[in-house]
Write a structure and sequence with these properties.
- The complex is a heterodimer of chains A (223) and B (383).
- With 223 residues, chain A is of the alpha/beta class.
- Chain A has 2 domains: 125 residues, D-Maltodextrin-Binding Protein, domain 2 (3-Layer(aba) Sandwich); 89 residues, 3-Layer(aba) Sandwich (D-Maltodextrin-Binding Protein, domain 2), CATH 3.40.190.
- Chain A is built from 9 helices and 11 strands.
- In chain A, helix 5 links the parallel strand 7 and strand 8.
- By secondary structure, chain B is α+β, with helices and mostly antiparallel strands.
- Chain B folds into 3 domains: 188 residues, BirA Bifunctional Protein, domain 2 (2-Layer Sandwich); 101 residues, no CATH class; 53 residues.
- Chain B is 38% helix and 23% strand.
- Chain B has 15 helices and 16 strands.
- In chain B, the strands form 3 sheets. Chain B has a 9-stranded mixed β-sheet. A 4-stranded mixed β-sheet of chain B has the order 14-13-15-16, sandwiched between helices. In chain B, strands 2-4-3 form a 3-stranded antiparallel β-sheet.
- In chain B, strand 13, helix 14 and strand 14 form a beta-alpha-beta unit.
- In chain B, helix 2 crosses helix 5.
- Chain B is elongated and about 85 Å long.
- The two termini of chain B are 37 Å apart.
- The chains are: A alpha/beta (223), B alpha+beta (383).
- Chains A and B meet through strand 5, strand 11, helix 8 and helix 9 of A and helix 7, helix 8, strand 8, strand 9 and strand 10 of B.
C-alpha cells in the first residue's frame, strides 16, 4: 500500500480519562516513550514502540477536532464530546467502557418541586454543551438559550446566572453540595475510540487492525 | 484607500480563484468531462437558476435547506440557485430528452452554491463535474459509472483512488419490521452513520434480536470490501434486503474484474449525504486527501426511471491532482514583430510582450515572472 510510511496519530485526552485509558492503550500493544509519563516534560507528541504510530495529548474537545480534520487518525473521546461535535467525519466504532457518567439536566432543589416542564417555551441553561442542550430541548418544542461555561456549571444557578444547567454527572456529589437535583438524563456517557472517516476508507487494513487490537484489549481488561 | 481591505472581504465559503490555480481547475474540469465523453456521455448545460418548485421536489427536497433562493422580478416566482446539478440533469432527462433512447448518458460541469458548508469543506460555491446514466437498473450500470470515475481520475493524474461502496437502503430494509418511532429512527441513523456499535447495541431492545444482529454484522463489515461482503453473505436476509445484497455483490464483482488494482472498501450503513439514493452508492477517496473527492450512486430520476451517476467536487479533486507544469513563458522586448510572436505561440510558447521600450529586457522578463527572454531573435533561458 502506498503512503503507509505516513505515521498514524492517536490523540488522547488530558485529565481524568487518560489514567483510565492508558491500561487499554498498553494492552493494545502501544507503549509511549518515557517522556509521556514525566509530568515535567513539555512535549505534546510522543513516539511509541510502534514505529509508525505516534501519540498526541490534547484537551478532550480538541481530540474531536484533531480527528475530524484528520490531523489524528485515531482518538479517545467521550460520547459527550462526540455528540456535541456531531461531525460526519468522526466515526466511533468502539465503546471503551471507561469514563462512565451521564449527561443530565439539573436545577435547584426548590425549583424542581413547583416546576411544570410542559409549560415551557424557553429556558436559559448554563452548559459546556450548547449543541446537545439546544437539540435536547428543541426535540420537546422548547427553545434553549445557552450560556456557555467551561467549568463550575453548578455555580450558575446559585449565583443567579440561570436556573438550569446541563452537565456531566458521575456521583452527583457536586450537584448536591450546591443544592441542585438531577431532573432528567439526556444520555449515558462512556469514552469511545474515535476514527477519522477518510483514514478508515483509505487505510482500512491498518485502521481495522487497531480497532481489533483495542477491542481485544478491552475484553482482556474486563475479564 | 483605507476601505480597500474591507472591499476585498468575501462572504464565508466564497473565494477568488487566481492564476495559476484557476486555470488548473478549469483544465482539470474540462479533462474530466472530456473523459466522460470518451465513454459516450454527452455534455449538457443547465441554467444557474430554476423555479424553486421544479428543482426542489422529490429528490430535490433533500437539498432544500442547502439552497439559496431569490424572487424572480419577472415572473414573481421563487427561483433556486442550483445547489447540485444532478437534479437538473434528471429533470432534463425526463423532460426535454424524454424521447431520447435509453440508457441515456449525460455529463456536466459547472458551479453550484450552497447555503452551508461543512467543517471540512467550508466552500459554499464550488465546481461540480459529473455524469448520469439514466434508464438503466442493473448492476452493469453501477459498474460502468464506478470504473469510469476511477479511470477518468487516473487519466487526469489523480493517483491512489479508492472507492467506498455503500448501500444506504439496507439498514431501512433490515429494520422494516421494527416498531420504531421517528426519534428512534433518527437516533439509529446517527448511530449507524457514526459506526457507533455500542449505541446500536443499546437499541437492541426496540430493534429485536434479528435486526440488531443484522445491523451489528453490517457494522462489522465496514472495511475492505471483499471481506466485508463475505461477512454480509453470512447474514440471513429476507426478500428486499437479500436482493439489495445480490446487487451490491454483482457491482463489486464487476468493478473488481474491470479494475483489479483499484482499492475498494465497503460501508453498508452510511446514509449521510445519500438521502435520496435507492440502491448501491459510492464515495471516491484518494490517499493523502482528507475528505471525499466525490460521490454517486443509484437513484430514481422520476417517471419511474432508474438512474445512477456520480459527482466530483472540483475543490477536492484539485487537492488530489498533481501540479501540472506551467507552460514556458517568453518575454518579448519592445519591437518584436507580431508575426514573430505568432510564430512562437504556434510553437507552443506563451508570450508576454513589452508594451513600451525597457532598457534591461532581462530584468523586465524576471519582474514579470517569465522564464525566458527573446534576445536578437533567439530565445534565452533566464537563470
Amino acid at each position: 500500500m502506498a503512503n503507509t510510511e505516513q505515521k498514524l496519530v492517536l490523540a488522547l485526552p488530558k485529565g481524568r480519562i487518560l489514567d483510565e485509558v492508558m491500561p487499554i492503550v498498553r494492552a493494545a500493544g502501544i507503549d509511549p516513550e518515557a517522556d509521556f509519563d514525566n509530568p515535567k516534560s513539555r512535549k505534546l507528541s510522543f513516539a511509541t514502540n510502534v514505529a509508525n504510530l505516534e501519540i498526541i495529548r490534547v484537551r478532550s474537545f480538541d481530540v474531536a477536532t484533531f480527528v475530524a480534520y484528520g490531523a489524528a487518525h485515531l482518538g479517545v473521546a467521550g460520547l459527550d464530546v462526540l455528540m456535541e461535535f456531531d461531525n460526519a467525519e468522526i466515526y466511533a466504532p468502539l465503546d471503551l467502557g471507561i469514563g462512565y457518567c451521564r449527561m443530565s439536566v439539573a436545577e435547584p432543589q426548590e425549583l424542581s418541586g413547583e416546576d411544570d416542564p410542559a409549560t415551557w417555551s424557553h429556558v436559559r441553561v448554563a452548559t459546556k454543551y450548547p449543541e446537545i442542550t439546544k437539540k435536547h430541548f428543541a426535540s420537546r418544542g422548547v427553545q434553549a438559550e445557552c450560556i456557555k461555561l467551561n467549568g463550575a456549571m453548578e455555580l450558575a444557578p446559585v449565583m443567579g446566572l440561570c436556573s438550569r444547567i446541563v452537565d456531566l454527572v458521575s456521583t452527583g456529589a457536586t450537584l448536591k453540595a450546591n443544592g441542585l437535583v438531577e431532573v432528567e438524563t439526556i444520555a449515558e456517557i462512556t469514552s469511545r475510540l474515535a476514527v477519522n472517516r477518510t483514514a478508515m476508507k483509505t487505510r482500512p487494513t491498518e485502521i481495522g487492525h487497531w480497532i481489533k487490537r483495542f477491542e481485544e484489549a478491552i475484553h482482556a481488561h474486563a475479564s | 484607500m483605507n476601505d480597500l481591505p474591507d472591499k476585498a472581504l468575501l462572504p464565508i465559503g466564497m473565494e477568488d480563484g487566481l492564476p495559476p490555480q484557476a486555470a488548473e481547475e478549469a483544465r482539470l474540469a474540462e479533462r474530466l468531462v472530456y473523459e466522460f465523453g470518451t465513454w459516450g456521455y454527452g455534455r449538457v448545460k443547465p441554467p444557474l437558476m430554476e423555479f424553486e418548485e421544479n428543482l426542489l421536489f422529490g429528490n430535490g427536497a433533500a437539498m432544500a435547506t442547502q439552497t439559496f433562493r431569490v424572487q424572480d422580478p419577472l415572473s414573481q416566482r421563487m427561483l433556486a440557485l442550483r445547489p447540485d446539478m444532478t437534479l437538473q440533469v434528471a429533470r432534463i432527462a425526463r423532460s426535454r430528452l424524454s424521447r431520447s433512447p435509453r440508457p441515456l448518458r449525460l455529463a456536466y460541469a459547472g458551479q453550484v452554491a450552497r447555503t452551508k458548508g461543512s467543517p471540512l469543506r467550508p466552500e459554499r460555491q464550488f465546481g461540480q463535474v459529473g455524469a448520469e446514466l439514466i434508464g438503466a437498473g442493473g448492476p452493469a450500470a453501477d459498474v460502468e459509472v464506478i470504473l469510469m470515475v476511477a479511470e477518468s481520475l487516473g487519466r487526469a493524474g489523480v493517483r491512489n483512488v479508492s472507492i467506498d461502496l455503500g448501500l444506504p437502503t439496507l439498514a431501512g430494509a433490515v429494520t422494516d419490521g421494527c416498531d420504531l418511532d421517528d426519534a428512534q429512527r433518527r437516533r439509529l441513523r446517527a448511530a449507524l452513520d457514526h459506526k457507533d456499535r455500542a449505541a446500536v447495541a443499546a437499541m437492541s431492545g426496540v430493534l429485536g434480536e434479528t435486526a440488531a444482529r443484522a445491523l451489528d454484522v453490517m457494522l462489522e463489515s465496514v472495511g475492505p470490501a471483499r471481506e466485508g461482503l463475505e461477512k454480509l453473505a453470512a447474514l440471513d436476509l429476507g426478500g428486499d434486503a437479500a436482493q439489495q445484497r445480490v446487487h451490491l455483490a454483482r457491482v463489486m464483482d464487476g468493478v473488481e474484474a474491470g479494475a483489479p488494482d483499484l482499492s475498494i472498501t465497503l460501508d453498508p450503513v452510511e446514509t449521510r449525504g445519500f438521502e435520496y439514493h435507492t440502491g448501491v452508492t459510492f464515495a471516491v477517496f484518494a490517499q493523502g486527501v482528507m475528505g471525499e473527492l466525490g460521490r454517486g450512486g443509484r437513484y430514481s430520476a422520476g417517471e419511474g426511471e432508474e438512474a445512477t451517476g456520480l459527482t466530483l467536487f472540483m475543490d477536492m479533486v484539485m487537492q488530489a491532482a498533481p501540479k501540472s507544469e506551467q507552460p514556458k513563458t517568453v518575454f518579448l522586448p519592445w519591437g518584436v514583430t507580431a508575426a514573430k510572436a505568432r510564430e512562437l505561440r504556434g510553437e507552443g510558447w506563451r508570450t508576454v510582450s513589452a508594451l513600451e521600450h525597457t532598457d534591461d529586457a532581462q530584468a523586465e522578463a524576471r519582474r514579470l515572472n517569465c522564464g525566458y527572454v527573446l534576445v536578437d531573435g533567439a530565445i534565452r533561458q533566464l537563470d
